[in-house]
Design a protein that fits this description.
The complex is a heterodimer of chains A (61) and B (437).
Chain A: H1 2-8, H2 11-32, H3 48-52
Chain B: H1 35-44, E1 52-59, H2 79-99, E2 107-114, H3 124-132, E3 142-147, H4 154-162, E4 167-173, H5 177-182, H6 190-199, E5 205-212, H7 219-231, E6 237-242, H8 249-257, H9 266-282, E7 286-288, E8 292-294, H10 301-306, E9 320-325, E10 330-333, E11 336-339, H11 344-352, H12 371-375, H13 385-393, H14 399-412, H15 428-435
Classes of the chains: A mainly alpha (61), B alpha/beta (437).
The structure holds S-adenosylmethionine (SAM) and iron/sulfur cluster.
């Protein structure tokens, strides 16, 4: 259903959702690359920038 | 399915299931917002003709650390802290209620979720009692409470029973011990029978959550789990979720690094969703909220009528008020999105000072008048005609949205054409069973 939700959203608001998904992917990549410790605090997306700073990951496409 | 005529998965236009998120309601960051500005927008949120009111209380504590879960919060809470947190969420809820113009309207549902609300122990009674006393709370208000099987204790269940809770809900995710271990869940499900014994038939709806498309899960395993729960004598509701890998960086990391087994093929994953919904519908179970199916032969009709359900925890339409309190909670109402800070310590310290601890970068004061359009694939009621008409009459939809809706209706309708105003509601059942999975 995520496909339909995304397609039916206005362009600008669709981007906010896409960016959030990309940010999760960037965090996951950093964990897989051993650049970020796999701890519960990684789920705290209010400080995602902090987690990603110092890794080679980029949070937006 | 070939009648739809596309070349993607199961005849659709898509090659894979979506990269879901648990929060479709988010808006771009707005660095100019202030606490005052957001709270002023809360007070200004208009009560439109189609207004509704739902409450959500978040409990950011959980002793488990499941790989797939987006949960962020504390591992444990002392008796004293649980008492303090319960008081503070009630302060925040009553304060927010005093601010909103919708105060006094009927409260259709109250959801206490987490995390693991069971870790509040008997203090949950204070919250339930406080909410029951709010204006707008009536006998027809749904009360649903989540819990984690491994940490639920009898004193917590007794409070739920004492306060007439409508629905108790817990995660099982999968019955397979190996998959459970991969997901950092207890291998065995001994806690299930213990909790069901504690409930002892005294809460009308007992809901179990399942997740499909877990790493290492085959189509047969997912359908076996579903059948076992359908046949379970003490479970009369099932929520089936599509694994949202985007919610949990840990899960993505494990899949990418090979630490977790791979997921089934895109085709089998699509079949898991289609067959899950198809099986529940064939059994005569009825859908409520977003992902929940209830056995109508095991739940009194008056209880079933109460259940609005809102597992995705976002507005169903622009006029809806969803007030969320507690650390990490999100509220949405006409023209406002309000997100609380996720740090429990920070949240409690600010709430003690009678301040609303908002995480401003994720708050917004931009109306999303088109909400009912893009939320409808998630919702059991589809898109009611009056909401579609309201959006058209109020200029809420742009041309691209109307065109997209028409095209999707044509692809999914399998012979049922929308009515003159292009209402998608007539195509609801085919969307629910296939496209909307
Ligand atoms: C956040 S939990 C709270 C309930 C309780 N702590 C428990 O696990 O029993 C609510 C439900 O969300 C679902 N869930 C959590 N993370 C998910 C994910 N990444 N994808 C899909 N569903 C998920 C699970 O089915 C879980 O039982
Ligand atoms: S799924 Fe439930 S038990 Fe597992 S970590 Fe999330 S909140 Fe805790």
């Amino acid at each position: 259903m995520g496909h339909l939700v995304r397609l039916l959203k206005k362009e600008a608001n669709r981007k906010a959702v896409d960016d959030y998904i990309s940010e999760g992917l960037a965090l996951g990549n950093a964990i897989a690359a051993g650049e970020l410790k796999d701890r519960r605090s990684v789920n705290n997306r209010q400080v995602a920038d902090l987690h990603l700073s110092g890794t080679s990951a980029v949070s937006t496409p | 399915m070939s009648a739809i005529g596309n070349s993607g998965l199961l005849g659709s236009r898509f090659d894979a299931l979506a990269s879901n998120t648990i929060d479709y309601w988010m808006l771009p960051d707005d660095p100019s917002l202030t606490n005052h500005g957001v709270l002023d927008a809360v007070s200004a949120a208009p009560v439109l003709p189609d207004a509704s009111l739902q409450l959500y209380i978040h409990v950011p504590i959980c002793a488990q650390n499941c790989t797939f879960c987006a949960f962020t919060g504390a591992n444990s809470i002392s008796y004293k802290m649980a008492e303090r947190y319960s008081k503070l969420v009630m302060w925040q809820l009553t304060d927010l209620m005093d601010r909103v113009q919708v105060n006094g309207h009927h409260i259709s549902s109250v959801h206490i979720g987490g995390g693991s609300p069971d870790l509040l122990g008997s203090h949950v009674g204070r919250i339930l009692e406080g909410v029951r006393a709010l204006p707008g709370c009536t006998d027809t208000t749904e009360f649903s409470v989540e819990m984690t099987l491994s940490t639920t204790q009898p004193d917590f269940i007794e409070e739920l029973v004492r306060h007439d809770v409508t629905k108790a809900s817990f995660g099982i995710q999968t019955l397979d011990p190996d998959l459970r271990a991969h997901m950092r869940q207890p291998r065995s499900l001994t806690h299930l029978s213990k909790v069901l014994d504690m409930i002892d038939g005294r809460i009308p709806v007992v809901n179990a959550d399942l997740i499909t498309c877990l790493p290492g899960q085959s189509l047969a395993m997912a359908l076996d789990d579903l059948q076992a729960l359908i046949e379970h004598p003490s479970i009369n509701a099932i929520s089936s979720y599509l694994l949202t890998s985007g919610a949990s960086p840990s899960l993505i990391g494990g899949l990418l690094s090979g630490a977790l087994p791979q997921q089934a093929s895109p085709h089998d994953r699509a079949l898991m969703r289609l067959n899950t919904y198809g099986t529940l519908l064939r059994q005569g179970w009825v859908r409520r909220g977003t992902n929940t199916y209830i056995d109508p032969s095991a739940v009194p009709a008056t209880t079933l009528d109460k259940i609005s359900g809102n597992e995705c925890l976002g507005q169903s339409h622009h006029a809806a008020f969803l007030l969320g309190v507690g650390a990490s909670a999100i509220s949405s109402m006409p023209g406002v999105r309000l997100e609380q800070v996720s740090s429990l310590g920070q949240w409690m310290a600010a709430a003690e000072r009678k301040e609303h601890p908002l995480h401003l970068p994720k708050c917004a004061t931009v109306p999303q008048a088109d909400t009912a359009l893009w939320v409808f694939p998630l919702r059991h009621e589809g898109l009611p005609q009056h909401r579609y008409d309201w959006m058209l009459a109020n200029g809420a939809l742009d041309d691209e949205q109307v065109r997209t809706l028409r095209t999707l209706c044509d692809e999914a309708s399998c012979g049922t054409r929308p009515r003159a105003t292009n209402s998608p509601s007539s195509a609801r059942s085919s969307w629910a069973t296939w496209y909307a999975c």
